[in-house]
Specification:
- This protein has 324 residues and is an alpha+beta fold.
- It has a six-stranded mixed sheet, with helices on both faces. The chain has a five-stranded antiparallel sheet with strand order 2-1-5-4-3.
- The longest helix is centred in the middle third of the chain and has 22 residues.
- It starts with 10 loop residues before the first helix and ends with a strand.
- It catalyses: 2 GTP = 3',3'-c-di-GMP + 2 diphosphate.
- It comes from Halopseudomonas bauzanensis.
- It is an enzyme of class 2 (transferase).
- It holds the Pfam family PAS.
Amino acid sequence: MTAPLDISELHWMLDIVQSIDVGVVVLDRDYRIQAWNSFMENHSGRSASQVTRQSLFELFPEIDRPWFAHKVETAVMLGTRAFTIWEQRPYLMRFKSYHPITGLADVMYQNVTILPLRTVSNSSDHVCLIIYDVTNAAVNRLQLETANTQLRTLAIHDGLTGLLNRHHWETCLEHEFARHTRYSSPASLVLFDIDHFKRLNDSYGHRAGDEVIRQVAGVTRQMARETDLAGRYGGEEFVVLLPDTDLVGAGQFAERLRSSIAQLQIDHEGQPLSCTVSVGIACINSETTSYHMLIEEADQALYQSKSAGRNRITLHEAGTLVGH
């Protein structure tokens, strides 16, 4: 075991480190604590006399010993400082956060500097840890990242349904069409709207109409695969882009969706409501010259479903409309 640091020779330096608002810890090469300033006392709840000559790892079992020892030994071997930052590891020692203004962090976020201490003979018998409380900066960064994530979500999602908004799914459709042009991969578009929605709105009010839209969107989201792109086309009209899906597969998906929505029971102020949808389906093929054309073909099929009595699906197939 290495000899303990002679703290009496550093009394003037300790007066400084006791008053600064960072943690200062001195360890010997066996990771036993030799110095522990007032910052560490205040945040750990342990006095210097309680921790001196104690193992750092026994006092703070949350420290990842192999990782930390590797950081220290590398710093000692190279004779240079090493650093840990909160973005990679939130803290070295788990201290409670005392930031009542933010109130958003339970623990203190920490940056740590590992500094080898050299003797006059140029050997490193001790290591100094300098621990910085960066909770405010970390919380501000995390809040900013959360806000940016929320803004990105709002930018691409419809506020009422949570489905993709028209601008975003149309952009996705454009990309999918470009992928088809390059790789000849199939893709289908399912376009549908809620039957007699205006009548429902007039009879029960807009709140009931909004709830019906939300419920239909919920069923659509549940039935879509992770790779599918479900969006709100506008008003009571919805769209689902099915990548790598031919017309037959899209028809099967649309029929399951139509049937599930028809069975939906929606509670509005204690009164059960139900609805049906009419569906139009089109698939990218060799004659599809643009993604706009695909939308037009699906819209034509949707119109046919409505003209034929609603609550049904119609496929746009080789220039013809086939109802089901």
